[in-house]
Amino acid sequence: MFTINTHLVSCALVRGAKAVGVIFCILCVLIIAECVDQPKSASPTADLRYRTPIPDATVQAYVPGGYISDHLEAVIAGEQFLKTTRMVSLQPPATLFAERMTLTEAKEKTLPSGQSFDGPLSEDAPVWLVIYKGLWRIEPPFPEETPDPGEIGCVFTIMPENGIGVRTAGTIKCPEEE
What we know:
By secondary structure, the chain is an alpha+beta fold. The protein has helices at about 5-35, 45-50, 55-60, 70-80, 105-110, and strands at about 85-90, 95-100, 125-140, 150-160, 170.
């Protein structure tokens, strides 16, 4: 006859359950750590997705005036803003640079010394600077019979991070040419 010592079986089950519990807790901690919001720079694709061409329908659908939360939104907001200026892109522009910084830093990177940026923003206000490269033409205030064929170059946009306030755009020497 075969007998089972129930005390030994229950001890083994308790130890096994404890081991399973510890393993379960470790897995939960690892899963939670992976799900925690990590900085966008931790993912190489998150940093570069704004450099892909933005469909024109996406740019047209953008509603300005809201908080600009990331690089991609800054690129879309900048392209939408450029559509309100006399700078016309004759081909889809390539995004060379998009970065959040202070207004002082953006002015240092874009405006020639002595040129000012008029607006109610403080010098330390957070803004987005976006630089595009493409084939551009500046539309004259009155239509011409023979439009300018345009030239390849870079333009920039400076937009307040909170989406409220003065935005500006202009031409700039392309960063890779410096």
